[in-house]
C-alpha cells in the first residue's frame, strides 16, 4: 500500500476518545475554599474587564480586591499542595542514592520544610502586626491579607509536620520508594 493510501485511511478513521474517571477522593473542605476563592476572583476579574472595556467606567475596588484574592488563592492553594505533597521537588538525586540515604534525605527535607513554613508564618504575623494601613478602595485593613498569609504558612507547617510524621512512622514516601507509590503518581502521556 502506498503512503498516500495509508494517510487517506488514517485521515478518515474515526477518532475514539476514552473518558478517564476523575478521582476526587483526595479532596477536602479546604480544597473547596480555594475553589470558591478562585471563582470569586474570576468573577471579579471579568467584572473589571466588563466595566472597563464595555461600559468604559471601571469599578474602583475590583483591581485591588482581585490582587488580594490572587494572594489568597496562592497561599491557601499552597496549603492544599503541602497536604497532598505535590509541591515541586528535585527527584533526580533520589534515584542514585541508596534507600537509607533517601530516608535520611527525606527526614532532613521534611524538617527544613516544616521549619521554613514556621519561620515564614512568624515573619508574616510580624508584618501583619506592624501594618496599620487600610486598603485604598475599601475600608478593610491591609493586615487582613497578611494575617491570611500567616495562617496559610502555619497550616502549611502543620501539614508538613504531619507528612513528616507519616514518613517517619511508615518509613516510606513517594521520594523514598517511588515504585510503591507509582499508582499515586500520574503518568505523563
From TrEMBL:
Localization in the cell: Cell inner membrane
GO BP annotations listed: C4-dicarboxylate transport
Superkingdom classification of source: Bacteria
GO cellular component: plasma membrane
Annotated keywords: Cell inner membrane, Cell membrane, Membrane, Transmembrane, Transmembrane helix, Transport
Pfam families registered for this protein in UniProt: DctQ
Membrane topology according to the record: Multi-pass membrane protein
Transmembrane segments: 32-53, 65-83, 104-125, 145-165
A molecular-function term among this protein's GO annotations: transmembrane transporter activity
Positions of the Tripartite ATP-independent periplasmic transporters DctQ component domain: 42-169
Main subcellular localisation: membrane
Quaternary structure and interacting proteins, as annotated: The complex comprises the extracytoplasmic solute receptor protein and the two transmembrane proteins.
Similarity remark: Belongs to the TRAP transporter small permease family.
Protein function: Part of the tripartite ATP-independent periplasmic (TRAP) transport system.
Protein name per UniProt: TRAP transporter small permease protein
Amino acid at each position: 500500500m502506498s503512503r498516500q493510501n495509508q494517510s487517506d485511511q488514517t485521515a478518515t478513521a474515526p477518532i475514539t476518545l476514552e473518558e478517564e474517571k476523575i478521582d476526587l477522593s483526595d479532596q477536602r473542605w479546604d480544597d473547596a475554599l480555594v475553589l470558591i476563592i478562585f471563582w470569586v476572583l474570576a468573577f471579579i476579574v471579568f467584572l473589571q474587564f466588563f466595566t472597563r472595556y464595555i461600559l468604559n467606567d471601571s469599578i474602583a475596588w475590583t483591581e485591588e480586591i482581585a490582587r488580594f484574592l490572587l494572594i489568597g488563592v496562592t497561599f491557601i492553594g499552597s496549603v492544599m499542595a503541602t497536604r497532598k505533597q505535590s509541591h515541586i521537588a528535585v527527584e533526580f538525586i533520589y534515584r542514585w542514592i541508596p534507600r537509607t540515604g533517601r530516608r535520611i534525605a527525606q527526614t532532613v527535607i521534611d524538617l527544613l520544610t516544616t521549619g521554613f513554613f514556621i519561620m515564614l508564618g512568624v515573619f508574616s504575623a510580624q508584618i501583619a502586626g506592624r501594618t496599620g494601613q487600610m486598603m485604598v478602595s475599601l475600608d478593610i485593613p491591609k493586615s487582613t491579607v497578611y494575617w491570611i498569609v500567616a495562617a496559610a504558612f502555619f497550616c502549611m507547617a502543620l501539614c508538613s509536620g504531619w507528612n513528616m510524621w507519616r514518613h517517619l512512622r511508615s518509613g516510606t514516601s513517594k521520594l523514598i520508594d517511588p515504585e510503591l507509590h507509582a499508582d499515586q503518581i500520574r503518568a505523563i502521556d
